[in-house]
Design brief:
Ammonium transporter fold; two-stranded antiparallel ribbon; mainly alpha
């Protein structure tokens, strides 16, 4: 009985072991209860057929144009545009080093670690906030037409639309930039806006409260404002021009920092009997190196905003260079005339003022117009620094004068002597070169809109943060000791005694 019960099993094992690769799977399936009939095996055979059909359908539904489907010229254009924007992104990200060096060098030794920490950490915050919601608010679908946009949380990296555009299968006005590289480029801009704020509130703001404000700025305030122009919003419909962000990036950062500086109040010792006192920076070599890094980084900021590798990239690079040169000359001459000697801090701020002054119009200025815009920006920044001191507002590095004031100037100057394109013989659109008053009024409206939006929203944000966390300013004892020790428990130069 026992032998009889086990003998079929032994025969089955033997036959399964001896079976060919073709018959083996069939024998194995027949050994499973419910699959021993031919009908069951027939139905089972339909499973892989069904799965194959489902896979083919799914592939057909989701498959798009691949890089290998592009012609040689299409692939070259697609790769050149995306590679150039990636390189430009790296240059803009490297500007964070320039901002950190300028700010740290122009401030006192006891606050160097705090300044470096803020500038380094703020970029990490900006990328995260912009990835989570900022990019969607800036470039998403319309919610309130012209004013508010949103496309859900996080960035969709699907490159199929860009590849279809490169193959000539996209809609009119489509972009062949893959979403990932476009996001990186735009996130670097968001980080720049937050970094500008750091300079205005330097040497007396609490680190944690600054972090929270930077998150709010890069997640909500900056992206919503940016969509008005760069996502076809109401300012774009009016014909407003801001090629790379004199208003959208620089003036927004400047206004945001100005509100913080006003709510914080001046540093201890900055004003004595109502007169501004000099508080020299501790390392002008670092500040100078930072200015040169920023100048180089601007070749990603402005030419990169062409968003393509075409014949106009070099044109924008030249207008950017000429404006920086004009700014340096203007600030040096005026500072020498007013103080009797050339001031290195003004040379640095003059270069940066010239760069900010051309950022909006780098694609809408002649070479001469670019140099003049930068020259005027360099002159303006010297008087703006003095005006802020006279108003009792403490701006340790001149950030509002450079980014806020010259951001507004760079926006409205297009309405004075801007042109309508980068092509030879482009027609004037400004008040002083035959274009009439219309463009000037549009530029002034746009600059005012960004100023009002930023002032109101940032006043609310700073006030709420201060109220929730018990103020945004460090204690008097901590400020006198230095934020390096109070906020971070370390020194930038532990082997050197302060004089």
């Amino acid at each position: 009985m026992t032998t009889a019960l086990h003998s079929p099993s032994k025969r089955s094992v033997a036959r399964l072991q001896e079976a060919s690769l073709l018959n083996g799977p069939i024998l194995l399936l027949k050994s499973i209860r419910g699959l021993r009939t031919n009908r069951a095996l027939t139905w089972l055979a339909t499973v892989p057929v069904a799965l194959l059909g489902l896979g083919i359908f799914n592939f057909s539904a989701r498959a798009g144009v691949g890089l290998s489907d592009l012609s040689g010229a299409q692939a070259a254009s697609f790769l050149a545009d995306n590679l150039w924007l990636f390189i430009a992104t790296i240059l803009v990200i490297f500007m964070n080093a320039g901002f950190a060096m300028v700010e740290a060098g122009m401030c006192r030794q006891k606050n160097a670690v705090n300044i470096l920490a803020k500038n380094l950490f703020v970029f990490a915050l900006a990328v995260t906030a912009y990835w989570l919601v900022g990019y969607s608010l800036m470039y998403g679908g319309s919610v309130v037409d012209g004013w508010l946009y949103f496309q859900g949380l996080f960035v969709d990296p699907d490159p199929s639309g860009a590849l279809q555009c490169a193959a000539g299968l996209g809609e009119d006005g489509c972009s062949q930039l893959v979403p990932s590289v476009d996001f990186l480029f735009q996130a670097a801009f968001a980080g720049t806006a937050a970094t500008i704020v750091s300079g205005l509130v330097a040497e007396r703001v609490k680190f944690g409260e600054f972090v929270v404000f930077s998150l709010v700025l890069t997640a909500f305030i900056y992206p919503i404002a940016g969509s008005w122009q760069w996502n076809g919003g109401w300012l774009s419909e009016l014909g407003f021009i801001d090629f790379a962000g004199s208003s959208i990036v620089h003036s927004v950062g400047g206004w945001a920092g100005l509100i913080g500086a006003m709510l914080l109040g001046p540093r201890i010792g900055k004003f004595v009997d109502g007169k501004a006192q000099a508080m020299p920076g501790h390392n002008m070599a670092i500040a100078t190196l930072g200015a040169l890094i920023l100048w180089i980084g601007w070749y990603g900021f402005n030419p990169g905003s062409e968003l393509a590798m075409d014949e106009y990239v070099a044109f924008v690079a030249v207008t950017t260079t000429l404006a920086a040169a004009g700014g340096a000359i203007g600030a040096t001459v005026i500072s020498t005339l007013t103080s009797g000697k050339p001031d290195l801090t003004m040379i640095i701020n003059g270069i940066l003022a010239g760069l900010v002054s051309i950022t909006a119009g780098c694609g809408n200025m002649t070479f001469l117009g670019s140099w003049l815009a930068g020259l005027a920006g360099g002159i303006i920044v010297v008087f703006a620094v003095s005006a802020l001191d006279a108003a009792g507002i403490d701006d340790p590095v001149g950030a509002f004068s450079v980014h806020g004031v010259c951001g507004v100037w760079g926006t409205v100057v297009i309405g004075l002597w801007g042109v309508d394109s980068m092509d030879p013989g482009a027609a004037g659109i400004g008040l002083l070169n035959g274009g009439g008053l219309n463009q000037f009024l549009i530029q002034a409206l746009g600059a005012a809109a960004y100023g009002i939006w930023t002032v109101v929203t940032c006043w609310i944000a700073w006030s709420l943060i201060g109220g929730f966390f018990g103020g945004i300013r460090v204690s008097e004892e901590e400020e006198l000791q230095g934020l390096d020790i109070g906020e971070h428990g370390m020194e930038a130069y532990p082997d050197f005694a302060s004089s």
